[in-house]
Amino acid sequence: MPIIRLKEINDMNSEERGKKLSELRAELSRLRTMISAGGAVENPARIRELRRTIARLLTVENQEKQKPKKPEKTEAEAKQAKTAKKPAKEKEKKKE
Predict the structure, then answer these.
(1) What is the torsional sign of CA 30, 31, 35, 38?
(2) What whole-number distance in Å separates Cα of residue 60 and Cα of residue 62?
(3) Per-position DSSP letters for 61-84, written without gaps between them
């Protein structure tokens, strides 16, 4: 079972993801230190879950940075779009 589901990651803002990422990295570091010191980890699969969750967080963060922002229409373009639709409606009315 994942530590954090993808839906929860997507619902977080960038700051929350950063905080969670640092928490998970600290926990992973602690577990790796325990292993290297010769200690027994109570749940070895937790390391794999942590690594995967960290990867998910980084992936979502990078996708957010890569998203192209939609350019806003200028006033002239907005007016032009509105006027372009009006004649088409008038032509339909004349046909009837």
Answers:
(1) positive
(2) 5
(3) HHHHHHPPPPPPPPHHHHHHHHHH
Long-range CB contacts (within 8 A, 24+) of 48-54 = 49/2, 49/3, 50/3, 50/24, 52/2, 53/2, 53/3, 53/4, 53/24, 54/21, 54/24, 54/25, 54/28
**What is the average per-residue pLDDT within 8-26?**
95
In a domain, 68, yes or no: yes
Average pLDDT of the chain, as a whole number: 85
Query: Domain residues for 80?
Result: 6-95
- Do residues 2 and 53 make contact, with C-beta atoms less than 8 angstroms apart? yes
Beta-carbon contacts of 72 under 8 Å, excluding residues fewer than 6 positions away, are none
CATH code where residue 40 lies: 1.10.287.310
Return the closest-CA partner of residue 4 out of 46, 53, 42.
Answer: 53
Residue 1 lies in a domain: no
